[in-house]
Amino acid sequence: xxxxxxxxxxxxxxxxxxxLVTSALALVVWNPTTGYMQRQREQSAxxxxxxxxxLVDESLHTGSHGLRELLTGLTTGPDSTxxxxxxxxxxxxxxxxxxxxxxxxxxxxxxxxxxxxLVVDGVPVLAVTLPIASxxxxxxxxxxxxxxxxxxxxxxxxxxxxxxxxxxxxxxxxSWAGRRALRPLSELTTAASRIAGGDxxxxxxxxxxxxxxxxxxxxxxxxxxxNGAC
Length: 230
Fold this sequence. Notes:
It is built from five helices and five strands, in the order ααβββββααα. It is α+β, with helices and mostly antiparallel strands. The protein has a domain at 6-153: PAS domain (Beta-Lactamase). Strands 2-1-5-4-3 form a five-stranded antiparallel beta sheet. Strand 4 (123-132) and strand 5 form a beta hairpin. Helix 1 (6-62) packs antiparallel against helix 2 and helix 1 (6-62) runs antiparallel to helix 3. The protein is rod-shaped. The two termini are 67 Å apart.
């Protein structure tokens, strides 16, 4: 297996370093951002479910006959589902789901308020279960998390793309910097190889002296002349 040249070793080292740094930054961005967005969505879904449960409780307490219409009006979108568990009766509205396929903790009638994330028929949802105070009923709302998952996917793709581009840019910059830094050494090696091969006319290419070095030499000479004259 051929070893990499010094130039490409410098390029790979810079690329890997850039990749590690940007990966750490991506994790720093990902963790708090996704955590904050998830908490905000869950808090919003729980607050909305609590408001809806109070409306259903008031409707049951007053004996209103428009309970089904109320449940239909409480659905917030095509992917949301509302389930009202009553003794001997199950009322649903919104997206149709198999109630029997839901986890037992979600269908715990008369239990404490609970919430959990799950996937129902391929749709990620947050299941919020709230007891109805005026009856032995339970209000269950399945709030969709599709938009949140899409946002996570877009953010993750953007961060991964940024990390890969950063690593590639590090390799390119490392290659360019290594070529410039090692150019004198390469020219010296080439000239030495030519001389070793019998080409005695091989010479190192002349390089122009930088302006700042010329100015520094002139300043040094002027100070020396001044000191000698003084």
